[in-house]
Design goal:
This protein has 415 residues and is α/β, with parallel strands linked by helices. It has a domain at 152-411: TIM Barrel. The chain is built from eleven helices and 14 strands. Helix 5 (204-213) packs parallel to helix 11, helix 7 packs across helix 8 (302-314) and helix 10 (354-371) packs across helix 11 (382-392). The chain is elongated.
Length: 415
């Protein structure tokens, strides 16, 4: 018989019999307890936020769609009238639907009160209703410099833009845009000197010095690659400077020495060079002629240069040779096409030192005294401008007259 005493000693504990145990009684709870993880909580919050955004977009009338809005306090007669009507009628309005329809008298009155020149009109949008309102910001008309008007009669439309032409009544751009100088009777036979400053618009400091230091008779040759060329030309004309367009032409050492994009080349056909010329001509308006630049090889080729100068003459312009090549045929071609022409006698800053510039100016005076006129060419660099400005103050006291380029360009005789 088994001992009825404590059976916990020497006898292994028998595990509970799940098969024989009554269902649902003394059964341990083996179901694990679930805990919500942090990513699940965040995902639920984001889903709820997205649901709110979709609901807002579906049921709220927001014509701006969340775009940023600038609110500017303004007052207009229509706003004042609307506020007065709301206050006087004792009625509540949720939105303002704009001013009433204008009568013919109101439109006539509005035309009388048109904004002055230089004003700007901005549109202000109401962030709650989506209504827009135009507000005029008056400009300072006194700060607007007068601009010499362009003459549409002398413009031809091309695929590159407007380029000069002779008007139907025979008016020539070289005559309209010239700045002739009135000479006293005792100075009309004095030797004439024309100074052309090239590269205007490239060097900011040189261009600024040219405008502030040089007298009006000095001619500005504007490079076709600068910024705001039209404004530059208009300013020059407003200050009584004649303007030339610089046209880059092929030098002998091209392409090692490259004058820039759209350079006229001897390797191109006449039509290709004319297309490039018209691109250059379209860069700005208001010039009296064109000035060849660095074109020693191009100006020595009659086949290449002749179509360019014929087109220049046909458009009522003058041509200035930069003197880069002693073999240039520009003079002969100009004569056979009745083209006003001038050739550079002295390059003033070939050696850009003050001493050499002063010597070049002395040689320019000698050429003018010998030939009756002379043309000096220089670049728009501060050191060059400074020397020419000092020279210009005294040159007329020595019996010379400083004139714009149009007063020395003559119609060359064909040889």
């Amino acid at each position: 018989m088994l001992d009825s005493g404590d059976d916990s000693q020497g006898i292994d504990a028998v595990p509970p019999d799940d098969l024989n145990a009554p269902l649902g009684q003394d059964r341990p709870d083996k179901t694990p307890k679930r805990r919500l993880a942090l990513p699940q909580v965040l995902a639920g919050i984001m889903g709820l936020f997205g649901l709110l955004v979709v609901s807002w977009a579906a049921f709220v009338n927001d014509p701006l769609g969340g775009e940023p809005v600038a609110l500017v306090p303004t007052k207009s007669p229509a706003d004042a009238a609307a506020k007065t009507a709301i206050a006087g009628g004792g009625k509540e309005h949720s939105r303002y639907d704009g001013p009433p329809q204008e009568t013919p008298d109101a439109k006539a009155e509005a035309a009388k009160t048109a904004p002055p020149p230089g004003s700007k009109t901005i549109t202000i949008i109401d962030g709650s209703s989506g209504k827009s309102q135009e507000v005029v910001i008056p400009g300072n008309s006194s700060s607007l410099a007068p601009k010499p008007p362009s003459d549409a009669r002398m413009l031809e439309t091309t695929r590159h833009g407007a380029i000069p032409k002779i008007a139907a009544d025979g008016t020539r751009p070289s005559a309209v845009y010239a700045q002739p100088r009135e000479l006293a009777a005792d100075r009309r036979t004095a030797p004439r000197i024309a100074i052309v400053i090239g590269g205007v618009g490239i060097s900011a400091s040189g261009t600024a010095d040219a405008f502030t230091k040089l007298p009006a008779p000095v001619t500005f040759a504007v490079a076709p690659y600068g910024a705001d060329l039209q404004k530059l030309a208009e300013r020059a004309r407003a200050e009584k400077h004649e303007v030339l367009l610089q046209v880059p032409m092929e030098p002998f050492d091209f392409p090692d020495n490259d004058p820039g994009p759209q350079t006229l080349l001897t390797s191109l056909t006449a039509d290709q060079n004319l297309d490039r010329l018209h691109w250059l001509m379209s860069r700005f308006e208001g010039y009296v002629g064109i000035a060849g630049t660095m074109g020693a090889r191009f100006t020595s080729s009659e086949a290449a240069l002749a179509p360019v100068l014929r087109d220049t003459a046909r458009r009522g312009l003058i041509y200035i040779d930069d003197g880069a090549s002693p073999r240039s045929v520009a003079g002969q071609i100009a004569g056979s096409n009745n083209l006003p022409f001038a050739k550079t006698d002295i390059v003033l800053d070939a050696t850009p030192t003050p001493v050499e510039i002063d010597r070049a100016l002395t040689r320019l005076e000698m050429a003018a005294r010998e030939n009756g006129s002379a043309v000096g060419l220089a670049t728009a660099q501060p050191a060059t401008i400074a020397r020419i400005a000092e020279w210009a103050k005294k040159v007329e006291s020595r019996g010379f007259v400083l004139v714009p380029i149009s007063m020395v360009a003559v119609k060359a005789k064909s040889s």
